[in-house]
Design a protein that fits this description.
160 residues, 5 helices, 50% helix
């Protein structure tokens, strides 16, 4: 496909995303103009690719699913694997690195710290310190991969 053949997105400035289901704000209705355009465009791409794939001979289902996976990976943004870091622990680590220690750190990052019994204070304090140590250790040895960050957070690279 040549650069002059790339079809632009339809005008979607005035179209609002409508929530569907139980709090699923990111879902789109089937009649949404973006989905209609995407379905049409994917059909056009499939029509373009079908003869090229057929020229390779008969492909197995595994090979076709690999092609579909590659197409899908080109549309979606990559993210880090694993559990998303907790914002509470991130804030506690930032305060720890800024030099905050002891009771001030606990009061700020443990809800209702002053109302807890001595045993619960000790337990919650130890848990917080353990989480801080674990986060610092993981951040220390974590590889930095800038490829996982989307520069403009857009689905399509030409949009800004």
């Amino acid at each position: 496909m040549k650069a002059d053949e790339i079809k632009p997105l339809p005008a979607l400035e005035n179209v609002a995303l409508e929530p569907v289901g139980f709090g699923a704000a990111s879902k789109l209705r089937k009649e949404h103009p973006l989905l209609m355009w995407a379905k049409k465009r994917v059909g056009e791409l499939a029509d373009e690719l079908r003869p090229q794939i057929a020229s390779c001979g008969v492909l197995s289902d595994a090979a076709l699913s690999t092609i579909v996976r590659l197409l899908r990976s080109g549309l979606t943004t990559r993210r880090r694997r694993g559990r998303r870091p907790s914002a509470d622990i991130t804030a506690a680590v930032a305060d720890w690195n800024a030099g905050m220690r002891g009771k001030r750190l606990y009061e700020k990052h443990i809800a209702g710290y002053l109302k807890l019994s001595d045993w619960r204070r000790r337990d919650k304090g130890q848990r917080l310190l353990s989480a801080i140590r674990t986060r610092r250790r993981r951040d220390k040895y974590a590889p930095v991969n800038k490829d996982l960050e989307s520069p403009n957070g857009s689905l399509f690279p030409e949009q800004k």
